[in-house]
Specification:
The complex is a heterodimer.
Chain A: H1 5-8, H2 12-16, H3 26-58, H4 72-99, H5 102-134, H6 142-163, H7 167-181, H8 184-194, H9 214-246, H10 251-254
Chain B: H1 6-11, H2 16-50
Classes of the chains: A mainly alpha, B mainly alpha.
């Protein structure tokens, strides 16, 4: 029997639809991420360089805080990334649990070290900003404490994964931890509204106009974009390492061209 | 350009320690992460080559 010609023809809509599950296969992920990496690295360098230029050479001195406020250019982007990366980690963990897609779990574990690093940087730059403006490196207020808990969540996630030898079981245990810990992210974000904190409220939100000068805002947003590109690049590069380590014995990895990998 | 000299920029109006201590730590962390990642990549490829792949 001849197949129905009408059925075989691709409609424009179905032709344009991307099959996202294609990239859940490590082989396809590996080749796509390899192509994206150089562009992401360049974007990270360009945005960060532009942000530093605007923030350190163009933005005026603050009339209240003097030049101490310039810490904002790295503090706020680092704090944003620490929360965004955790959300992304929980997202990939959920996908991995639901669909058993190997790359989802690899992405989740590839995000953790970078998330922990940005959390540490948010705390470090916050301490260096707190000393000249509040007179103390640290206070146990809601914002600082919940951000510290975020650092412990990242550390716990990595320690848990490292302690389980079977990668599949390590992925599942890590995913459950990541999903349980995700309640901490809204707590960090809204802590300055829910509790009376020493930490100031947000200068930028979706509801009102930002309460900062344009050049200051521009420098901060450029560095935020730079950190985004950096995070995606580093995460993809780390996920590629995980692919090589875990799929070492598969035929497609064995046949990889040494130069391109 | 808001600074009149390099010294002025370095001093950051008296807050130089805090501002450069922040930026320096950020730069150091990013650099260490990238170098550690390179090392991990190299090791993964070596292990592959040892097992017969990636000629």
């Amino acid at each position: 029997m001849l197949p129905d010609v009408q059925e075989m023809r691709l409609t424009p809509a179905s032709a344009a639809r991307i099959n996202w599950f294609k990239y859940a296969a490590p082989q396809n992920f590996f080749s796509l991420s390899g192509k994206l990496l150089p562009y992401l690295s360049w974007l990270a360098a360009l945005f960060s360089g532009a942000g530093l230029y605007v923030g350190l050479l163009l933005a005026p001195t603050d009339f209240q805080q003097g030049d101490a406020y310039r810490i904002i250019f790295v503090h706020v982007p680092a704090a944003w990334m620490s929360m965004v990366i955790y959300l992304a980690m929980a997202f990939w963990s959920a996908l991995g649990l639901a669909f058993h897609t190997r790359v989802s779990a690899m992405m989740a574990s590839a995000l953790a070290p970078t998330g922990a690093m940005f959390t540490f940087l948010a705390l470090w730059t916050g301490a260096l900003w707190g000393k000249p403006t509040w007179g103390t490196w640290w206070v146990w207020d809601a914002r600082l404490t919940s951000e510290l808990i975020l650092l412990f969540l990242y550390a716990g996630y990595m320690a848990l994964q490292a302690s389980i030898d079977d990668p599949r079981r390590a992925d599942r245990a890590g995913a459950v931890l990541a999903l349980v810990g995700v309640v901490n992210v809204p707590i960090i974000y809204f802590s300055v509204q829910w509790w009376n904190t020493l930490h100031q409220g947000s200068s930028i939100n979706l509801k009102s106009a930002p309460s900062m000068a344009m050049t200051m805002l521009l420098g901060m947003l450029l560095l935020a974009l730079g950190f985004w590109a950096y995070t995606i690049a580093v995460t993809l590069a780390r996920a590629r390492c995980i692919v090589l380590e875990r799929e070492r014995h598969t035929e497609w990895v064995q046949q990889l061209d040494g130069v391109r990998a | 350009m808001i600074w009149n000299s390099w010294q002025e920029m370095l001093a950051m109006g008296g807050y130089g320690r805090y501002v450069w201590g922040s930026l320096g730590m950020v730069a150091l962390c990013l650099l260490v992460e990238v170098l550690a990642l390179r090392q991990r990549q190299r090791r993964a490829r070596q292990a592959l080559r040892a097992s017969g792949g990636m000629q």
